[in-house]
Design goal:
Radius of gyration: 20 Å
Strand content: 15-25%
Structural class: alpha/beta
Helix content: 25-40%
CATH superfamily: Spore Coat Polysaccharide Biosynthesis Protein SpsA, Chain A
CATH class: Alpha Beta
Largest sheet: 7 strands, mixed
Number of domains: 1
Order of helices and strands: EEEHEHHHEHEEHEEEEHHEEHH
Distance between the termini: 58 Å
Strand order of the largest sheet: 5-4-1-6-11-8-12
Number of helices: 10
Amino acid sequence: MFIQHKNHTKITKAVIAAAGLGTRFLPATKNQPKEMLPIIDKPIIHYLVEEAVASGITDIVLVTRVGNHIMEDYFDNRSELETALEEAGKTDRLELVRNIPKMANFIYIRQRNHLPYGNATPLLAAKEVIDNNESFVYMFGDDLTISEKPVTRQLIEVYEKESPTAVLGVQEVPYEEVDKFGTVKYKENPQHPHEIEAGYEKLPADQAPSNMAQFGRFVFSYDVIKKAIESPTGKDDELWVIDILNSLAQEGKSVIGQPIEGEWLTTGDPLRYLKTTLKFAMQREDLAPELRKFIKDCII
């Protein structure tokens, strides 16, 4: 049974989960969050905000942890730097710095220790700033995308058209890499071919229901927050997004696993972080030619 969630409000908020410990990047993340590591000349979190804003989002809810005030400082003004740039006549860089706080309306929420750990926990932390009839975007702070149309915009458009309870972004991955990701099982429903029956975490290739990997881009109705509030923790005593979505799907609610047009890139570990940095560098005309030459020389 296909149950639609009726949504009549424009989606203006994005909740970004940025409360992890970044242990795979220690000691670099000892005193700074992983989301502040640079991809060339902007931190990871900046790219997420850009994608959200380009998708029509006006309010960014950053869910952080104790010690992550550096993110709040980043999206604020820094008067002494702006004065120094102005006095030096570096107007182009001054404009870059001054525009950062203007990107969106920023709301900062601390994820408290009494909450369970898990990739759905920021939903509990942010529940007070989401109205009970409001739909919103949810983003993992270590997933980036490259696409002509912003991936978040793609998912919003599917949500607005289909009125499901949730939309999650998925991307096809090679079967030999399936065990590194969560994958989705689609229902056999020709009318709604991307409606999922369930999602599974990191199954071996011979057990995975598909090679469509889940990643950190979602559009949720408030029903997802309500389910998160009442859900027990799962594997490793963590609160998992996919467990919440599976519960909703089992209740007959529509959950769509939407293949994206573009490329999902993760920064979750040092190797993938380096690959993502190279991918982004290759998009830049000021860097790509010399970088290609450098890589070629290194290989030789």
